[in-house]
Specification:
The chain is an alpha/beta fold. It is about 10% helix and about 30% strand. The chain is built from two helices and eight strands; from the N terminus they run αββαββββββ. The model has no long low-confidence stretch (mean pLDDT about 90).
Length: about 110
């Protein structure tokens, strides 16, 4: 998944505020890649149906994240700025949103 994500990011402008991945990804994704590639203005992450099993290190500043119809078991490192989280039709058993001061307004988890 990581190399496919990197390939898609190479086609995007660094000034964009939305990353929409329309190809199916599989495995775990580490979004530290966004910062290392110079994407500092991203607010929305939209991931298509696939076989993503984990999402890690979502950057600060992300307000919307959608990752439906995957095999997600874990989401680590949600930023405090997250307002909209849609991870329906995945395999998440639990998600702990109690430890930080999230700005979450809507979460679709089932």
């Amino acid at each position: 998944a990581q190399s496919s994500l990197e390939s898609v990011l190479q086609t995007k402008t660094k000034k964009t505020n939305e990353i929409s991945i329309s190809i199916p990804l599989s495995g775990a994704i580490d979004f530290k890649l966004l910062a290392s590639m110079g994407f500092s203005k991203i607010r929305h992450l939209l991931l298509s149906k696939g076989q993503i099993t984990g999402i890690h290190n979502i950057p600060d500043g992300i307000t919307h994240m959608v990752c439906n119809d995957n095999l997600l078991e874990t989401i680590d490192g949600l930023p405090d700025t997250i307002e909209y989280l849609d991870v329906t039709s995945n395999m998440i058993q639990s998600i702990d949103l109690s430890q930080r001061h999230y700005q979450l307004k809507l979460a679709n988890l089932i």
